[in-house]
Amino acid sequence: MKKLKKSLLVKNVDGTVNTEEAIIHQVECNMFFKGYVERARMDVCNLGKTEVILGMPLLSKDSECP
Fold first, then answer.
1. Residues paired with residue 17 on neighbouring β-strands, in sequence order
2. Looking at per-residue confidence, does 41 or 5 come out higher?
3. How far apart are CA 18 and CA 20, in angstroms?
């Protein structure tokens, strides 16, 4: 885990500001899905009950992920 030099404001999916905390760390990890593997850098913050939110670059039709 790497601490960021400057924290990032977090906005929820509905556009409101996340009141729990800002993003202050990033982590690099391997993501595995149905034989697909990708090294990813992810921002770390409190999402409440949600464990992870994947962004549009990974979920887009141009991604190699199945």
1. 11
2. 5
3. 6
Q: What are the backbone dihedrals phi and psi of residue 22, each rounded to the nearest 5 degrees, phi first?
A: -90, 170
Confidence of residue 63 (pLDDT cuts 50, 70, 90): low
Categorise residue 13: left if φ over 0, alpha if ψ from -120 to 50, beta otherwise.
Answer: alpha
Taking alpha carbons only, the member of 48, 58, 37 closest to residue 13 is: 48
3-class DSSP state for residue 15? coil
| Half-sphere exposure for 1 (CA within 13 Å, toward CB) | 7
Q: Which residue has the tokens 């905390």?
A: 21
pTM of model > 0.70: no
Element (H or E) spanning 18, and its range? none
